[in-house]
Amino acid sequence: MTERVKTRDLPQGPSADVASFASGVRAGSWQARAHAAASPIAGGGPLLLRRRPPHANAGYGSGTNRLKTIAAAVFAAMLVLVAGCGADGRDSAPERGEGSPAKEIGESSSVLEQRGGVEAASAEDGRWFGAGAEMGGGEAGAADRIEGVRFQDFDDYERLLIDFGRRDGRPASVPRWSVESPAEGGYVRVRFPGVTSTEITDEDFVGSVLDELYVVRDRGGGLFADAFAMRASRYRVTELPESGRLAVDFRGVREELDLLPTTSDNVVVLQPREAEKVGSPLSVQGYARLFEGRVTISLLDRDRVVISSRTVRANDWTTAWGLFAATLEYSGYKGLATLRVGSNSPRDGSFVGTETEIFLE
User: Fold this and answer.
1) Which one of 95, 227, 229, 298 is least enclosed by Cβ atoms within 10 Å?
2) Does domain 266-360 have CATH number 1.10.579.10?
3) Checking phi first, is residue 342 left (phi over 0); if not, alpha (psi -120 to 50) or beta?
4) Is the distance from CB of 358 to CB of 339 less than 8 angstroms?
C-alpha cells in the first residue's frame, strides 16, 4: 500500500478549448485525464495528492482545467525522489507494499498525523456498490467538523479517509452519514447532516480511479463531500472505530463511463452533463466558489449569441463550496449550444467559471 500525501502545487496545463465533438480524445476531457492517470510514471516514484489554491481564477474550459498530464506526474515524481534522497544516496520515497503504510511528508498540513496503524482490508471484504446505491451509519453528535482527508493506494483499490473533530475539543468519532451516487455515475456523495464546518474545501488526487474531492454546504445546513472518479468504479464505505475515521474505497471496473460532470477551479456543473441532449426548460445544478456567491448561467448558440441567461446566488462561497440551481427557458433554437456558468472576476473582469457543450432539442 502506498499512501499519497500533499505536496506543493504542480504546474497547471493550459485551459482546454471548447469541444467540437470530433472523434478522438480531446485535451482536457475525462478521456485524456483517464489516459494520463493510467499511464506508468517514470522512475517508479509515488503519486501525489495536490491541493488547489483557494479561489483560483482559472479561465473557462470544457471539462476540468486541472489537467493531470503525464508530464505533470513525471515532474511531481522527480520532485519527491530528489527530496527523498538522503546523504547516502538511497531513495527514501515510500515503496508500494501490500498492507504497509508509506512514509509521510512532515510539512503537509492537509494530511493529519497517523493515529495508530493503517486499517486496511482486501477488495473482497465487504460489499461493493455501483451507481444508485444508498446506505448510511454513524452516530449523531459524534463530530461537528471535517479536520482533513487522507488518500491511500492499495494493490486492488484506492481509499479516501476522512478525519473528524469537535469544536469543544473532546474526542470525535464518525458522525451520522449517508452515501448516494447518481444513476449516471461519476461521483459518490457522502452527506454529514451534523457537520457544520470544515478545514478543507477541495482536493485533487493523482490516482487511477479517484480524481477530485469537493466539500459543499448542504441545503439543510450540514455538509456533504463529493468524491469524483475518472472512470467507472464500485465503492464501499467503512467506519474505522480505532481511528474514528470514515473510509470510502474505490475500485475500477471495466465499464463505460460517459457524460461526466464539468469541473473547474471555481465551478462544478452536475447537470446537464457534457454532450447531453436536453430540452426546455433546462435545469442547471452544481456548486461554486465565486465572489459573493453570484453565479451567472447563460445559454449560447453556436454563434455564441445568448439565448437565455439568469443570475443566482450559491448558499456559500467562503467556508465551503455553495450549491446553486436555476432553470433556463428557451425557444426557436435546436442543435449544438454552450452552457456558460461562472462570473466576472472582481480583480480584472475576466471570466471565471466553466463551459459545457450540450445539444438542445
Assistant:
1) 95
2) no
3) left
4) yes
- For residue 247, the number of C-alpha atoms closer than 13 Å in the C-beta half-sphere is 23
CB atoms within 10 A of CB 23: 5
Looking at the whole model, is its pTM more than 0.85? no
In this structure, what C-alpha cell is assigned to residue 317? 462561497
Query: Measuring CA to CA, which residue among 52, 53, 43 is closest to residue 77?
Result: 43
- Strands 202-205 and 49-50 come out as antiparallel
Domains of the chain, residue spans: 2-252, 266-360
6-7 and 49-50 beta bridge pairing = parallel
Nearest to 10 by CA among 63, 58, 45, 53: 53
What's the gap between Cα 273 and its chain centre?
A: 16
Q: Cβ atoms within 10 A of the Cβ of 237, count?
A: 23
pLDDT of 291 = 94
Cα 99 → chain centroid: 25
